[in-house]
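User: Predict Serine/threonine-protein kinase's structure from this.
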Amino acid sequence: MRYKSKLGPGDILGGRYAVRGIIGSGGSSHVHLGEDLRLPGKRWAIKECVADNQDYGNVQAEAELLISLDHGRLPRVVDFFPPDEDGYAYLVMDYIEGVTLNRYMDSVGGKIPGDTILLFAKQLLEVLQYLHEHRPPIVYRDLKPSNIMLAPDKGLVLIDFGIARRHRGGAGEDTVKLGTVGFAAPEQYGGGQSDHRSDLYGLGALLLYLATGGKYSEWAAGMEGRLEGRLPGTLVPVLRRLLRPRPEDRYGSAEEVLRALEGAKAGSSPAGSRPQAPVKPAPPAPSQARIVSLMGTASGIGVTHTSLAAARLLARFGSVAWVDYDPASPVYGRIRSLAEASGRRVPSGEAEGPLELGGIHCWKRPEDGVLEGLTSRFRYVVLDMGSGAYEGAEAEFARGDIPLLLASGADWRMEETLRWLGRSGWRQGSSWKIGLPLAGAHAAELLKRTLGIREVYVLPFQTDPLAGGGSLESELRALLAGILEKGGGRKKRSLFQRK
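Assistant:
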């Protein structure tokens, strides 16, 4: 970027937002991590925009556009500081914990499973449908891996609206040619005006790029053969139509693409792939369960996602109860609402369990916190303890047979993890294990060396935590190996039970 930032660590924006460090740069903007001085522990992303040639109108327009939007796959803008005399303006928005899609691709060596790509497509179509249904429609115009974040609990989130605009009906072609070469539709570079169908082309280019490990983003002769075994078969013709050069030859709307994907179910086998062998029936539950307790050093770090993935793996070896253990957590209620919306049977009245989800029995924490009724019925109990924001949480966490702490793998957040461990009473030699969602191997090695321990695990991203197989399951198998052994070994009496 050709503009230097005016902000540095320790600076305070607007008397409220303390700058902790820079987390990204590009084009004419920097993005900083900000800590809210009025809401302790709350983090924000501060986008520092520079208006070129006194073009303050574009910065103001982006702010007004973002403030008007409300969707789970878009960051909320909570504050705006208009351009100063040098053209520097600031947007304060949701901080999204995760990695960009290009970093995710690097972490998996460019090999993304076909069912994951299908789920990515549906998530992006959700937000594109929301944008395009505005009047006038909002056209994003720059779908590319670096503009999309992958968050453990949310999935995909669009993070940069620098060139989005409302569609101007009746214009012959775009006045300014904007977009990223390789992902932008042909009409964005002359010959027509970009509209919602330009975003559909960009989606097709992005999905093709992901499916081919970054080798292709434009359709070419023989592409069907290159995609064989990489995607569910029903997705290939959808990609082909999305990437038609003429807008009128593509799909007419995001909703139409979603309908076309109805037959492409996540988890379906790509053409030419062999079906997996069925899982053997699980043995009956023992008299007492093994307890896996999960807690995060901060909210939004992926505790629920990881706990459900762990429960899904454990269900292969015996009966599992997953418990929404944080008293203030809304997760169980959300699961219940989703079950009701899908027409599934749910407990009557005010009952708080069980709900069956992919072979897992989901429960809300008992009011007294005592799990004796569950530990006598199930082989495994998985506790989703959130960020432990309630009295006694850390002591309860430590009582699990396998206490798994989730922390950020970002280098600049290493000190935060160390402080958290110091406050919680962690000591070398404890049974705690540490998981780093979406981190690289270097982050795990650094934390191992710093703490002098071996039990640090990188937890790769998996879009659907209830989908079996994949690299996340492999890592969880290693992490949970001690209780996956037949019979589970001798079980100590759990302090979650009544004495």
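Residues 114-132 form the longest helix (19 residues).
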